[in-house]
Amino acid sequence: MDKPLPAPAAAAAASGPGAASAERLPVIAVVGPTGSGKSDLGVELALRLGGEVINADALQFYRGMDIGTAKISPAERRGVPHHLLDIMEVTEEASVSAFQAQARRAVDEIRSRGRLPILVGGSGLYVRAALDVLEFPGTDPRVRRELEDELAAVGLEAMRARLAAVDPVSAERLGDARRVVRALEVHRLTGRPFSSYMPRREYFQPALQIGLSVDRPVLHARLADRVQRMVDAGLPEEVRALDGRGLRSGRTASRALGYAQFLQVLDGEATVAEAAEQTVVATRQFARRQLTWFRADERIRWFAHDDPALAAQAESAVTAILER
User: Fold this and answer.
1) Is 287 a domain residue?
2) pLDDT in tens, 234-252
3) Binding site as annotated, residues for substrate
4) CA angle 49, 53, 56 (to 5 degrees)
5) Taking Cα atoms as reference points, which of 28, 11, 3, 4 lies closest to residue 315?
6) Residues 205, 92 share a domain
7) Which segments are annotated as binding site for ATP?
8) Which of 40, 212, 248, 312 falls 20 to 30 Å from 147 in CA-CA distance?
9) What pLDDT, in 10s, does the model give residues 20-78?
10) Which of 155, 173, 197 marks a domain boundary?
């Protein structure tokens, strides 16, 4: 599909007093908890406004992880181009810094076609990496190994004490060994505290975030129903197939909701019913964390997920930005 920008968006893209160039069209981000209908709204906005979708769900990067991630199907995309879906094997580890570069490149390419970039996903840090001023310090395998050896020798608390001396903010916030080692590595390499690299709520480029809100009881029911539909659609078989492709060796993919639980079914450690129930519980917990993350961002404009006028309201919010 190659629909041009409709009149309001085209006017915003045109040159002239107070009008943005195509290169400065805002990024529209559709965010919210899992199961709130982000993918459908992203497609609808793209159809109405001449846009293309950029995936910001870290687990939808993986080829073959379709059912368990509720990945939007080709038919459901309704001809709208989607970017950064199915770009990795399950054995690879997802990287926020790599995603930042890929997403920003996709934004530039979409704008170069005079179309509107629409970021869709619930992976909070990935959304922030695409939208906000956020630096990613480098890494050094030699330094990392030295710190990991020291961790093995002296223990986590001693390493946290070392971190507290140079970066008390990170020492207070970080509890797991891997992140403490990373914070010490960053300080050694850059001379700056790891906490100084935390994202600021400052857009890297013009943006509008649209959040989908769902009442908690309704969301819980939707998630339970969705997990059951995944099981009925073949999630156990999908996990079995991915296990044959190295799922367990993937640090990101193997811990994904549903996949970790159904690997236990393959190992005879849980029944399908037990794995489904565990997935429901874990998904509810994940949705709660997502809401906490997104609710802390006062820039997001929230809309009820089940409002019959949702698409029109979201379109109006976008058009208002384009007409500035």
Assistant:
1) yes
2) 999 999 999 999 999 998 9
3) 34-39
4) 140
5) 28
6) yes
7) 32-39
8) 248
9) 456 678 999 999 999 999 999 999 999 999 999 999 999 999 999 999 999 999 999 99
10) 197
- The two tokens of residue 292 are 């906490």
Give the single-character DSSP code of 228: H
Question: Which pLDDT does position 176 carry in this prediction?
Answer: 86
Q: Do residues 145 and 284 share a domain?
A: no
Binding residues: 32-39
CB 53 within 8 A of CB 46: yes
Asked whether residue 215 falls in the same domain as residue 89, the answer is yes
Q: Indicate the average pLDDT of the chain.
A: 92
pLDDT for the residue numbered 23: 63
Residue 202 and residue 211: Cα distance in Å, rounded?
17
Number of other residues whose CB lies within 10 A of the CB of residue 223: 24
Q: Cβ distance 60 to 54 under 8 Å?
A: no
- C-alpha–C-alpha distance, residues 124 and 257, integer Å: 16
Q: Give Dmax over CA atoms of the chain in angstroms.
A: 67
In sequence order, the 6+-apart residues with CB closer than 8 A to the CB of 269 are none
How many domains does the chain divide into?
Answer: 2
